[in-house]
Amino acid sequence: MRFARLLVIGLPLSAGFSVRPLVSKRPPYHPAPLSMSEQQQDAPKTYPPPNAVPDGMKTYEAMHKQSLEEPDTFWGDAARSTLKWFRDFDRVSQGGFDTGDVAWFTGGQLNACYNCIDQHLPQRAKQVAILHEGDEPGVVTKITYEDLLGQVCRMANAMKELGVKKGDFVTLYMPMVPEAAVAMLACARLGAPHSVVFAGFSAEALRDRIVDANSKWVFTTDEGRRGGKTLHLKSIVDKAVEDADCVEKVLVITATGAKVPMGKRDVQMSEMLPRMRPYCPCETMDSEDLLFILYTSGSTGRPKGVAHTTAGYLLYTGMTTKHAFGLEEGDVFACVADVGWITGHSYIVYGPLVNGATSLMFESTPMYPNHGRYWDVVQRHKVTQFYTAPTAIRALMSCGPEIISDYDLSSLRVLGSVGEPINPEAWRWYNEHVGKGKCHIVDTFWQTETGGHVMLPLANVTPTKPGSCSFPFFGIEPAVLNAQTGEEVTGNDVEGVLAFKRPWPSLARTVYGDHKRYMDVYLNPYKGYYFTGDGCHRDSDGFYWITGRVDDVLNVSGHRIGTAEVESALVLHPAVSEAAVVGFPDPIKGQAICCYVTFVSGYTESPELLKELVKQVATHIGPFARPGMIVGTPGLPKTRSGKIMRRILRKIAEGEADKLGDTSTLADPSIVEGLVEKANALL
Ligand code: WT7
Fold first, then answer.
1. By alpha-carbon position, which residue is closest to atom 10 of ligand 1?
2. Per-residue pLDDT tens for 368-395?
3. Residue 486, pLDDT above cutoff 80
4. How far is ligand 1, taken at its centre, from the CA of residue 548, in Å?
5. Which residue CA neighbors atom 16 of ligand 1 most closely?
6. Alpha helices in 326-423 (DSSP H)
């Protein structure tokens, strides 16, 4: 660790899951997220839910059992009672993991936007659907269900006029303004799958995603605001679409009102929308029609367009929102993620709205204008459920808990955590200082590919242990596998990799345009299972503990970044010959990025060059992927067959050069000796 710190070249914390660079210089509470063995030592206490419903666990167990023993009855009933159908389905589920031909509710027809808005109008026309808290405190927009229908319909009609048709892909590059949700729902209304690209991605990353989806339409805003800073979104889009010939129109929504250059393909939506009729009929969609794709990183290759379909996704996100957070009438549900990630799709837009809840959308950061902002939002809007990421909690912890007592947080009942394993110390801080011991802490494990929570405590039902995501949701059958043999490890107090034994409704159906890749990444590694890519431990009480990715995927402030993407960005620089990227522990971000690079002859390592390489990654991917450390080396440690030995690079970055393990297969041991020497000299 010390070696790692010494090599860090003075870099700011990247903007994470709504986390801004820290104002405070106080040392973090905990040096690093705990390793699994530490979690175990640290774990004994079980917390009962503060407002436990009688026999909750018994009911959960019975329902979970039914969901596995009679899945068609369980899911068929759930789908009919949760969703409104234009046509009932013929079959509940079909297909499986052999070829990845999974399909749910076939024969059924529905529309996701209808389910999120229209179905609620008889009871909730005047209820707030989207409660938007702007970047500046107290700049609030309330959109009722009735208003939301009007706004979505105007947007959908404008899109139709511009030529958007059912089946067309629409890319969104938007800040956290209400129009981001409105545009997503308008896409759903027209049956045009959306592809939301997080507004922290660079122009190049955006272009790659537009081109991969062959998207003719791109939504953006003039600018965005976040933490008092301006995001120049339109100009990034201009750069991205320069050589993306597939793009016909860029739909520019007014957010700050700044004057931005408008080109031939650009459409000023503020001029178009007022002319539009505030009603637009819904397209009738089949259950398995695509609702959206969302790009995410894997261990190899380019980002994958993870594809989600309509009925299964909507049902599952609706049910998990309800059960994970114990939704009740009148609740104000606040998921402070960004709609650019799956968390925002499932738990800001679709999950809360299909339940007819009030969903709070937060445009700012936990640190703006100071580190009491979350609590200010909770107090002013009387938030009942609050959902954030461990990285944000750790950042706030490092500022101290004092500021929290300035706010009345008594409206809170459930506190959620998502995105990475939560270290027990952060869990307890969240529980004690924010929840005052009266809230249920729900640590929800899931992935872009799972669509919704797969392992989680159910609010007011499941007892919790700090750092454990507890038990499976209905219909989820987890398995711990021996990573090497692929055999299932049964019984308790075991570890291995986490897999699932059967499909569930919101499982991603494919990688857009590349089903083989879907099979190779998720379904082929262990035949008969969906492979998560995460390590896990099932403790002696049967609680599940996620121990982090076992592949080359990094989790930096809850942002998922593939090491291969960072490596590709680095080797595009003329000075770089080869690059190998690994993660190392970071007290706030969970993980930070360490890059080992070899230089093309004629280039020598210098602080300026290293800074340039950091910029290189920020430009090719986005500022959130900025490396925390870059190490120049004359060569990379490789096996005799030429494979880079990342395990060794990881150990060196973690400051554990004394625990390299077996190095006998190295082609040139002197390279490692050189790197270790560098380490020893610095330690
Ligand atoms: C990866 C998925 C799911 C929404 C946000 C991230 C890690 C996610 C947890 C958790 C431990 C977690 C896993 C997973 N992860 N939630 N509660 N405990 N790890 O979605 O970008 O698709 O990343 O995030 O490593 O595989 P994503």
1. 445
2. 999 999 999 999 999 999 999 999 999 9
3. yes
4. 8
5. 419
6. 342-344, 351-354, 373-381, 390-397
Ligand 1 in contact with 563 (CB < 6 A)? Answer: no
User: Which residues lie below 8 Å from residue 72, measured CB to CB, with a gap of 6+?
Assistant: 92, 93
Of ligand 1's listed atoms, the one at least distance from the Cα of 455 is: 17
Three-state SS for 592?
A: strand
Q: Using a 6 Å cutoff on CB, does residue 198 contact ligand 1? A: no
Q: In sequence order, which residues have a C-beta less than 8 Å from that of residue 520 and are 6 or more positions away? A: none
Scanning the structure block, which residue is given the tokens 């083989």?
A: 516
The total of other beta-carbon atoms located within 10 Å of residue 172's CB is: 25
Q: Are 156 and 280 in contact (CB under 8 A)?
A: yes
Do 639 and 667 form a contact (C-beta atoms < 8 A)? yes
pLDDT digits (tens, 9 = 90+) for 145-178: 999 999 999 999 999 999 999 999 999 999 999 9
Whose C-alpha lies nearest to ligand 1, atom 13? Answer: 420
- DSSP code of residue 472: B
Ligand 1 atom closest to the Cα of residue 337 is: 5
pLDDT digits (tens, 9 = 90+) for 402-413: 999 999 999 999
CB distance 646 to ligand 1 below 6 Å = no
Specify whether the CB–CB gap between 188 and 111 falls below 8 A.
yes
Residue 546 Cβ < 6 Å to ligand 1: yes
The HSE-up count of residue 677 (CA atoms within 13 Å, CB side) is 7
Does ipTM come in above 0.90?
Answer: yes
